[in-house]
Specification:
With 328 residues, the protein is α/β, with parallel strands linked by helices. 37% of the residues lie in helices and 20% in strands. It folds into three domains: 63 residues, no CATH class; 172 residues, P-loop containing nucleotide triphosphate hydrolases (Rossmann fold); 73 residues, Ubiquitin-like (UB roll), CATH 3.10.20. The strands form three sheets. Strands 2-3-1-4-7-8 form a six-stranded mixed sheet, sandwiched between helices. It has a five-stranded mixed sheet with strand order 10-9-13-11-12.
Length: 328
């Protein structure tokens, strides 16, 4: 067994061993690969995990090919990350999706308007983040596919209505998620059997924070929670604080934007490559094309480098906004 594996790896490995569905196992394998440090000592382990993941995906697709194509919950990830809106009925999830994205969900002041997930793309500066509205959570009936979609997400945006007992809404929503072993990552230390849980960053969107008249109500709500939850007060109807929401989502995704530059040409700042923070020139080369990954001799970097156009190697760590010229 390779050394220097982080504690998170062993927690996910336990979750993988106790997983009962192919979807859960796939998510666990992807999580394991994301936390393993990249060095020669882990090459064999990463190769083994990739083979398991490939076989599991192929088996799952062969077994469920027809049902996956027809399932509304079979949403392929797009953009820089996947943020999922969750909450009880009539809290304004669909209105937020319609305001923030190009999607056109049915919006009405009646319960249970949304019966299937609705995806849209939310522009955040010069990138797109996938935002998905989901059917209202109801303890009497929760579809397992909905829980699988939530587990696949990068961020959960838990929506409550500031005008209608938001504390009760928050508690009930969190209880339903916990019953399905989906736990806020900031409460991880409160869980004993961590390997049985999926931990997600969860932000509480306090909707209907329409104008200054709602400031006092929000402050009371905030004080009652005593800092237990990260809150983002927003309004789907007036657009209040929606830019702040986008900023928080981008920061939580922990990604960087890197721009490709061909020799003698200007970079295209409208089409960044999206990588995880801490990614190297080697990771970027693999994103651009396998030829660059296999044959790369060196790269030049503008932005985070000591000087503009500095020559760097494969292990150079990139930063948000860097421009990279690959040479083979």
């Amino acid at each position: 067994m390779p050394t220097n594996l982080p504690p998170d790896y062993f927690e996910v490995e336990k979750r993988y061993r106790s997983a009962t569905s192919a979807e859960e196992k796939i998510i666990c394998l992807q999580d394991m690969l994301s936390v393993i440090p990249k060095h020669k000592g882990t090459d064999k382990l990463r190769g083994d995990l990739r083979r398991k993941l490939s076989k599991l995906k192929a088996s799952s697709q062969a077994r469920k090919g027809i049902s996956k194509r027809t399932s509304a919950y079979s949403i392929d990830k797009e953009g820089a990350g996947l943020a999922v809106l969750v909450g009880l009925s009539n809290v304004g999830k669909s209105a937020l999706l319609a305001t923030l994205t190009n999607a056109d969900p049915e919006v009405a002041n009646v319960p249970f308007t949304t019966w299937s997930p609705t995806p849209g793309m939310m522009p955040v500066e010069n990138i797109q983040v996938q935002l998905v509205d989901t059917p209202s959570l109801n303890r009497d009936f929760v579809e397992s596919e909905l829980m699988d979609l939530i587990r696949r997400s990068d961020i959960l945006l838990l929506v409550v209505d500031l005008k209608a007992d938001p504390i009760k809404q928050l508690e009930e929503t969190v209880d339903i998620l916990r019953e399905h072993r989906i736990t806020p990552i900031h409460q991880k230390d409160q869980v004993t059997e961590v390997y049985r849980h999926t931990f997600k960053p969860i932000f509480v969107l306090v909707n209907k924070y329409d104008d200054e008249d709602m400031d006092e109500i929000f402050e009371i709500f905030q004080e009652l929670l005593e800092g237990a939850w990260p809150l983002i007060p927003v309004s789907a109807s007036t657009g209040r604080n929606l830019e702040e929401l986008k900023r928080v989502v981008f920061e939580c995704l922990d990604v960087i934007r890197v721009y490709s530059k061909a020799p003698g040409r200007e970079p295209d700042y409208n089409a960044p490559f999206i990588l995880k923070s801490g990614s190297t020139v080697d990771d970027f080369a693999g994103k651009v094309h396998q030829d660059f990954l296999q044959n790369l001799k060196f790269a030049r970097v503008w932005g985070s480098a000591a000087f503009e156009g500095q020559m760097v190697g494969r292990d150079y760590v990139l930063h948000d906004g860097d421009v990279v010229e690959l040479r083979i």
